[in-house]
Write a structure and sequence with these properties.
- β23 and β24 form a beta hairpin.
- By secondary structure, the chain is an alpha/beta fold.
- Strands 1, 19, 20, 22, 23 and 24 form a 6-stranded antiparallel sheet that branches. A 5-stranded parallel sheet has the order 5-4-6-7-8, sandwiched between helices.
- The chain starts with a helix and ends with a helix.
- Among the domains are: about 30 residues, no CATH class; about 130 residues, Rossmann fold (3-Layer(aba) Sandwich), CATH 3.40.50; about 100 residues, GMP Synthetase, Chain A, domain 3, CATH 3.30.300.
Amino acid sequence: MAGFVARQLTRSLRLHPGIARQLSNSVQPQCNQRLHNDMHPNVLKSDYPDIVVPEMPLHEFMFDQIAQYGKKICIECSVTGRSYSYDDMVNKSRNFGRALRKKLKIQRNDVICVLLPNVPEFPIAVMGTLAGGGVLTTMNPIYTPEEITRQLNDSGAKILITLSELYPVVKSAIGTSMPVITINNKPETRTPEGTISFNELADSVIDLPDLQDFDMSSIALMPYSSGTTGMPKGVCLSHRNLLTNVMQVHAPDINMLEQTQGDKQDIVPAILPFFHIYGFTSLSCASMHVGAKIVTMTQFIPELYAKVLLQHKPTVLFVVPPIVIFLYAHPMITKKHLESVRVSISGAAPLGALDIIKFQQKADTNIKVIQGYGLSESSPAVFIQPHRENTPHGSTGKILPSTMVKILPVDDPNGEPLGPNQTGECYIKGGNVMERYHNRPKETEETLIDGWLRTGDMFYYDENRNFFVTDRIKELIKVKGLQVPPAELEEILRDHPDVGDAAVIGIPHVISGEVPRAYVVPKANKQINIDALNEYVNKKVAEYKRLEGGIEVIQAVPKNPSGKILRRQLKTAYLEANK
C-alpha cells in the first residue's frame, strides 16, 4: 500500500521518489484507517442498486418531470378550494423566479425566507426562489418575533415570504428592514400596505432568460435543526443532496406513490408541514414527482382532517405517530374515512407495533403501514421499509440506495463497526448528506467525520439488515414530530431574573409523543413563581415548545466534570418516579 501511495504521489505531483515515499509514510496510518473503516465487513452498503442522479438543479429536474402532468391538479387548498395545475406550477414558478431577479434584484445565493403554513403557493415560492438563483430557508409560521429575528439574522435572509394575516407578527420582528412578499390565503384578505403581492410576481411575464450553469453542490435549502447538540443551526442542503434523496425514495421496491396515468392520480393530504424537511422532500417533492394531487391544510384541526379524508378520498397518507393514534382512537374517524387509503408512511418518531395493529383494525382494510427514518442533515430519508416485503414491527427499514451505514460504539468514531444485534451510534454516508452547517465550522467538524454523518441516534440491525432505532443521544425533544432543542429553552429560562440555572428534558406524552419539562434552580435570595415563569416562556416560544411537562424547582442541575448537563439522569429519575 505504501508503495502504491508513493507511486501515485510521484506521478500526480511530479515529486522526487524519495520525497514521495516520505509523504506516503506520513499519511499511511490515516489511509489505512479510512480504508479499514469503509471496507470493513460491518460497514453496510444498501442492498438496492445504486441510483443515477441527473446533473441538473432540483427545480429544473422537477419542471421537466412534472410538465407531463399538464392540466392535472397539482395542489389544492382544503378550505378555500384554491388550486393550481401542474402547468400553473411550472409557469408561475418561472415567473416568480424572474420577478425576483428583475424587480427585487436578488443575486445568486441570496437567502429568501419562507414563513408559511401549508398553502398551495408554498411550492411555487420554493421552486421560484431556486429558479431565481436564491437559497431557501424555511421557518415555522407560529414562531414568535424573537424566534423569527434569530433565524433571519443567522441565515442572512434578504427577503421574506409570508401570509398577509401573519404580517403583523413579521413586522414586529423586522420592521421595514427587508422586503416582505405576502400571500392572501382567504378571499377577503387584502395585501397589507408596505408589502409586495405574491400573485403579482407569480403572474408577471418578464422577458428574461432563465439562469443556467447551476453548480450541483450550491446550496438550495437551509432548514434549521439542532443536529446532535445545541441551538438550531442552518443545515446546508445542496441541489445534489435534495435530488439524490428524491431519486432514492423513488427507486423500485421503495416508492409507495403511483405515477399519474389517465384518470388515475394519487391523492395526498398535506398535514405534515412543508417547512419541515420531511414534508418538503418526502411529501411535497415526492408527490409532485409522480403527478399526485396534494391537498393542503394550514394546521391540524380534527374536523378538517376528517372532512378531507371523506371528501378527497386520499390514497396515500404521510403521517407522524400522533396522527396515527388520532386516526385509530378518535370516535370521529370510522373505517369509511380510511377506505380509499392504500398506504401510510410514518416518520419523525418510532411507531409502536400495537399502534400499527390498532390503526389497521380501525381501517378494516389491507392498508400498508411503512416506517422510515431520516434527519434534516440527510435531506432527510436514510432508511425505509420496502413495501413489497414484510419487515418486523418497529423497524425503520432498510438502507436506501447509494447509501452506506455503520454502527459504532458510542463516543468512539474510530472504533470497530459493530455487527448484528449490537447497539451503537449510527453513521451514514451518501449523496444525500448535507454539505455543512451554516457558519458553524466547529459543529460541522463534530458532525461530519471523514464524510460520515454522525446521526446522534442509537441503532442496531438484525441478521436481515433491518434497522431499529432505540434512543436519541442528541436529546432532542420531539413534540408531534417537531424538534425542540433543550438548549434553546434552557437559555430562555436562564435569562429570567429569578433563575440561576436550568435543564430541560422530554417526557412521554400520550398525544404529542413527548413534551418539554424544565428543572430550574433559583438565584440566591430569589423565589420562583412557576406560573409567572411559564407565562414568561410562553411569550418567547412557539406553542409546541411550551413546558407542557411542567416546571420543577431543584437545588442544583446535575452536570459532569466538564459542565455538561446530565439530562439523561434527570429523565431516568422522572421515569422511575412515574412508573
